[in-house]
Amino acid sequence: MARKSIATQHGFTLIELMVALTASMIVMLGLSLVLANSQKSWNQLYTRAFSDVVGDSNVSGIKFKAIIRKASQNGFVVDNQGKGIEVYYYNNEDSADVDRYAHFYELDGDLNLEFGKLNPRETLEVQTICGDVTECLFTAAGRSAQMALTLDNGSRKISTVSCAFLHNQ
Q1: How distant is the alpha carbon of residue 169 from its chain centre?
Q2: Residue 88 to residues 21, 72, 75, 98, 116: CA-CA distances in angstroms?
Q3: For residue 63, what pLDDT band results from cuts at 50, 70 and 90?
């Protein structure tokens, strides 16, 4: 009589190990592609949100609004082509007369801000607020002023409009 040997199987066969290894590699490859794509998208979004032109447009808008709100009742004057605006204001709160001016203008691709005394007319300081300006237009209506600004650094172009109202008497 033939003897039957009862052998119990311990472990996995080579085929089962190869199938499991292949399946896990496919899953890991898929996850790595998803992570790589997420990182690329995040970098693009970050660059768009925090590029130089975005920061410069925000800074110029904040500066414009602060100066316009500080203007006296005599207010401001926009030049004929809308390429500049001059704002008149008090040097301090105790002044009886308007004695200072601030002049926004675009020159050679830069948005500049000139501060000075009115009588006698004297320039005290000129600041460059931002560069890469391709278009800048100032308008006024009543007690409000508006600045439309387009910045382009070659890789990113942004257009913003800032509007402010006079607050002083």
Answers
A1: 33
A2: 76, 6, 6, 7, 10
A3: very high
